[in-house]
Fold this protein.
Amino acid sequence: MRLQEIKLVNFRKHPELTFAPSDGINLLYGPNGSGKTNILEAVHYCALAKGLNKSLDRECLTFETNYFLLRSRFVDETGVEVFVKVSYEKASDKRIHVNSEELKKYSGLIGRIPCITFSPVEMSIINGSPQERRRFTDNALSQTNKRYLEDLLQYRRVLQQRNALLAESADRGTESGSLGVWTEKLSMLAGSIISSRLEFFDRLLVHLEQIYKEIGLGEVPGFIYMPSFGKLLSKTSDEDISRIMMQRLGEIGSREIYRRQTLLGPHRDDIVFRINDVEIKKYASQGQIRTFLIALKLALQRFVREFTGEPPIFLLDDLFSELDRKRVGKVLQLLEGAGQSIITATETQDIEGVHCIAVSELA
């Protein structure tokens, strides 16, 4: 998938701007505050229906305006064009059109335009809370697995209903009669979700290990998936996971009613990232963490291409900061021929095969 052109109106720092990148590696440069990241965010909106780094729609308006508009044109590997329009007004909800047809749900866009991001803010995936690692996992899988996205959305609805019943049970002083039905529904969805996550990390690790070899880091990366209800044996089936979760939820029923919330499930699981059998979050240097994140996103790029047949658009914000020139060169080698990449930097770089574009020249 490649971005042919995107037009921004009243978006962040850009009252009006048109950006047309090349098919390969693009370097978008300009001083801090010139709006480079804003352009990446606009592309992200058109691919994934939301801003970068959890920003709100209203935060993306140009100062003293009440609407923004994004018009984009993409083309896939077969030459088929996809037109995406995202519009937002303060007085109404965001609206998304794909090929002139308005989407009823934003989730309908997910997977149409495969897109991966790298940003220093995403260091929290490695050293932040479990929620950040779950978000990374859910975003990656939702783009490549429609069933996973459907299961995840359904799980969140069932979880909300079950939590409401737990709160009702706490208020009444006795367990709601329908709680068991919702527990069973939650456990079945949890089995499917966790099984998909385990398979995802198994496949992603193959690519990550290869990336580490190609960069020449001399380290061995790894993952450990940590279910909130306890360790799983290898090759555990969906049904077995559901059964284990049902059993554990039954054991802690009174505690859940007291706490008025579901205490076990995919919404509380974690992923431990490791290098040489040591947990990165606890023992790695900032340089190791940053390098791991870049390698993780490069591995995800290969996973998405393998799974969908489409090379995803790769948005890399401030890639060059804190990386030595040798390591930057290795990363660019891995990006070459792997699809379209858009990188931001404060200055232009004299690098063969990289198309440099000044933000100041865009209009």
Summary: The longest helix spans residues 179-215. Residues 1-114+311-363 form a domain with the Rossmann fold fold (CATH 3.40.50.300). The first strand starts at residue 2 and ends at 11. The CA atoms of residues 167 and 259 lie 8 Å apart.
